[in-house]
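User: Can you predict the 3D structure for this chain?
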Amino acid sequence: MKKLIILFLLLPSLLFSQVSPSKIVRIADASTVFGSALSYGTYLEMQSNNKTYKIINVNGVAGSAMFSGLVLNTDYIEEGTVTSVSTAAANNGVTATWSMASPTPALTIGLGAITPTSVNALSLTALATGFTVAGGTTSKTLTVPLDASVSGTNTGDQTITLTGDVTGSGTGSFSTTIAGNAVTDAKFRQGVARSIVGVTGNATANTADMQGTTDQILRVNGAGTALAFGSIDLSKSAAVGTSVLPVANGGTNSATQNWVDLTTAQNPIAGAKTWTGLGTFSLGITTTGSAVNLNASSNFGTNINTGTSSGTVTIGGSVAQTISIGDGIGGNTVSMANGVNSAAQTISIGSGANAANNTINIGSGTNTAGVIAVTVGSNAAFANTTAIKGGNGVGAITLDPHVAGTIVIGDAAGTGDITIGSSTAAQTVLIGNGVNASAQTVSIANGATAADATVNILSGVGTAGTAILNLADNPRVTTIDIGNIAPTVARTITIAGGNSAVADVVNLGTGLVGGAGSKTINIATGASAAGTNTVNIGTGATTVNGGNEIHIGDGTPTGSGTNEITIGSSITTAGNGVRMQGVQSQVYSNGVVTLSSTVTITAAQMLKSGIIYHSQADNNARTFTFDTGANIAAAMPGGSATVGDTFSFIVANGRNTVTLAAGASGSFFTGAVLTVAVGVTKVVTVTFTGATTYVCY
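Assistant: Here is the predicted structure, written as structure tokens:
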């Protein structure tokens, strides 16, 4: 008897479980399950969980559907009901699900993420990009790093046939052929500018670029051995053939005419030559042996180097000559470089490197009628400059008009600066410096101003060196006026008013008076008819000790000299007087006079010693007698005294009692004498009541 054994090899891990006995199992038609009917005498054997289940063809009919509607009972097979199917743990992603849904149970198999390391002895390896497949009897590896697709009928090393402009056939590698005229200009390689492709030599070779430059043509050289760009040699008959070159192209337009070649040196051509048309010479013309007349006795213009000519025009040679331009008397107009130039232009007159004297006269004739007007430079509103230069001699640049002519520098409406003497080196600028034999006036900014005017003399801010400003140092100057006019607006006259950081001395009338001369310095001595005169001396708000020191008449006379200083008016009307503010002390030039015995205090000690001090160490009383009124008056400023003249001094008693007594023509206001006790200081004030009489207070 044949048997059919179904082994669950494809799903080795599937297990039937939970089979309950005494259950009916129905099997579908075998032809449906196994593809054909089982023959008579065969049986179906199923194995699971180490048990064997046999189903016998009881119908005994070969090829019949023996299981159709067959009911198996416990006499033939163990029976039960399959309620679930499970899979083992190591299942490579295979899953199985059993459904007992009525009326048709179902078994669902899932593949999942299968990750086998080999299939049919082929190794599969995943890469970071792509994968590899390796294996075979002789191992080979297929690597797929990029996306790829396989289609068509190429299954191996097949024969490939190319058609079109490139043809060829074969397997693997094979030769191809490019069709004639198939390579277009666009497919041909590029060449350099202004070139053709060819062979420059005299033999077969690879082609290369042949490049031409300006005005060259492609030609074969005279030896017939090289092809290149170049010029045509018209002396070669092969280059010109039998053609006749027209005159317009530089030829003679004749194959037989004997033309004179004026482009090269020629033997003398005898006879006068007359041109009835325009003669044009491109390389110049030279004439010798006779006068040359251009447009003689005609009314045509004469042009020399006109148009676009850029050459030099030279008139005159290297020997002594007279060159006259525009010497006619018919009212000539002579223009030099008078065109509207569109590029930089230079006009030079007498500008050569002279090796002898050179005199250039422009408009220097002595005219007998008419007026000569000479203009040098332009005053158009551009950055035009006019430079007049001279040598290093006296009068290198001289402006010398007629004796009655005037010299004007600057336009009446000009606003630009006029600079005279701007050198940074040692230089002397002289204005009106001649030894004048008649009255002369030099005026600086002396116009009747109708707007603001500022005159600066030596007022720049110097950074080095010293500067000296001399005004009226001429011994013949009799009047010096500074602001000596009645102003119509408020005015300030400042002398040495800068904030000085160094010694600054201002001298007024400090010169020595000699002989019978005299000197009077007046400051604000005008008789005020209205308003007030204020004279400030040393009134600055000083912030340092001793910041203001004011000396008046403190010079030291010699010989019979005297200092006389008068401050204030002798008029006793109301409002007159001398106000001394903030006086803390009187400063005397002789300081303290120390006396130790009975003596006469001299006029000089009374006037010039601020303090008379008694210092005798014994206990004897002392008497100090003042000088006579005559002696004191003689010691006063000016050698005399005026009623009301007053001065003071101090008597300090450091020892025994001192008696002060007035001298001849003097007295004390309180009596004949004044007693000063020990340790007492008295201020004695002396006032003249007459020319030689005085009273002490």
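The first strand starts at residue 3 and ends at 6. Residues 377 and 386 are 6 Å apart (CA to CA).
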